Amino acid sequence: MSAPPDAAPTQAARVKPEPPPAFQVSGRHAKRLPNWGLKLTMALTGTIGALFLAIHLFGNLKVYSGAEKFNAYAYWLRHVGEPLLPANSVVWVLRIVLALCIVAHVSGATILWLRARKARGRFAAKRSHRVRSWSATLMPLTGVFILAFVLFHLADLTLGIKPLAPETFQEHTATAAFAYQNLIASFSRPAAAISYVGAMVLIAIHVSHGLYTVVSDLGAVGKRLRAVLIAIAGLTAVFILLGNASIPVAVLLGVLS
Amino acid sequence: MKLTLQIWRQRDTKDPGHYETFEVDQLDVGMSLLEMLDRLNEQLVHEGKEAIAFDSDCRESICGTCGVNVNGRPHGPRPHVTSCMQRLRSFRDGETVRIEPLRSGAFPVRKDLVVDRSGLDRIIAAGGTVALPAGTAPDSDAVGVGHDQVERALDFAACIGCGACVSACPNGAAVLFTGAKVAHLSMLPIPAIEKVPRAEHMVAAMEDEFGPCSQYGECALVCPQNVPLTAIAFLQKERLKSLLHPRV
């Protein structure tokens, strides 16, 4: 609704202004992917990743309820939705979604990292020795290690590629899963158990800073909302660390066998 | 009090620059960092040498003109205090203090400690003003703004545009600066009318020259006006909200 050309500016004309000429932008980078969009992509894909880790943790903790239940859960994961859906369909949907998230997350991170280095210029900033600053600094490094860990983890307990997988690795069959036996066999190797615990520390650092960043990237500004979301971010990381790392430790101590 | 100063000297933007060491004696602990530089400059001029160039204006922490990195920290060792208000009592007698210009790819050094911060001006030109034909001043109380809302807006409006946040940021980002301006204007009724184009244009202008935010939190630690880190979330919120209001 625009006012007749000769009329004095009305209230309606004031409410919906044309972009005033005083707002000037060079448009130098108008065609590249914007940083805020890349940050949003990383926030959403990272949140999906953290949700996956939380669900994965829930599944992992079933190991404490015994071999039978753990194997039954592993079997159920592959056969959920049958006979409506073919076998393995849910795991494959999850795998594809997660793989796409990883590609988007890593690409976004790489582009932003390169832009940040360029924007900083010749002289690196001196950092304060605060946990937040350290975990932000470590994000690319923890990210790369986590990626390597995921590949190792898949070779170890999903694909059974030796020598990364234990000698006694048993492939799942159409009627049974051996996730429990494979897990015990893998974590009975001290080097593997230690690397799993180490990986959980890195994941916890990455997830805690990542989810903390998500709070701002999704634009949460209310004091209480921010406090709650930041607490959830921290607790998620702590649960992932303690819950998952307890399993290799339990195997090494002989609690699980 | 005596200090050994390592000060960045750079002839012009093209000169690679280097540190030069000076001894300054008979300093008073109550002197400001800039008064110490004045003293050193008097000494240099007296010796027939070229004075060190540095920016300053009000010297009472409100103009945002001064700002140097002291031992790598924007403005100086005391948090939330501008260079002009940093006192020498923060240093030990006989200490070596390194003074360099604010560092960022977007802040080219003009001379010695003087940097070109016009990148921040270009962000403001992109939308940090109220460009509405707002008419004559309204009657008082015609447009109601709550007291808490005003206080909150003023917390963000406190930004003096000194550029310390950019220099502190390992990514060379100006998100705290831009977020403070966007947050302050979006909370007040008349400027809020333009918040959609403002968020779009100011973010675009910011990304033209400055880096992305990784939530290091270094900016808010050095900010002389104590602008809260929430400014960063505000900027992202306003930018995302502008997607819901496509302009015709």
Model description:
The complex is a heterodimer of chains A (257) and B (248). By secondary structure, chain A is mainly α. Chain A has one domain (35-53, 66-117, 130-252). Chain A has helices spanning 11-15, 35-60, 67-79, 89-120, 131-159, 179-187, 190-217, 223-252. In chain A, helix 2 (35-60) packs across helix 7 and helix 7 (190-217) runs antiparallel to helix 8. The longest helix of chain A has 32 residues, at 89-120. The mean pLDDT of chain A is 89. Chain B is an alpha+beta fold. Chain B has two domains: 3-111, Ubiquitin-like (UB roll) (Roll), CATH 3.10.20.30; 118-242, Fumarate Reductase Iron-sulfur Protein, Chain B, domain 2 (Orthogonal Bundle), CATH 1.10.1060. Chain B has nine helices and seven strands, in the order E-E-H-E-E-E-E-E-H-H-H-H-H-H-H-H. Chain B has a five-stranded mixed sheet with strand order 2-1-5-3-4. A two-stranded antiparallel ribbon of chain B has the order 6-7. In chain B, helix 5 (175-186) runs antiparallel to helix 7 (195-209). Chain B is elongated. Chains A and B meet through helix 2, helix 4, helix 5 and helix 7 of A and helix 7 and helix 9 of B.
Coarse structural class of chain B: alpha+beta
Query: How is the main sheet of chain B built?
Result: 5 strands, mixed
Give me the count of strands of chain B. Answer: 7
CATH topology of the largest domain in chain B: Fumarate Reductase Iron-sulfur Protein, Chain B, domain 2
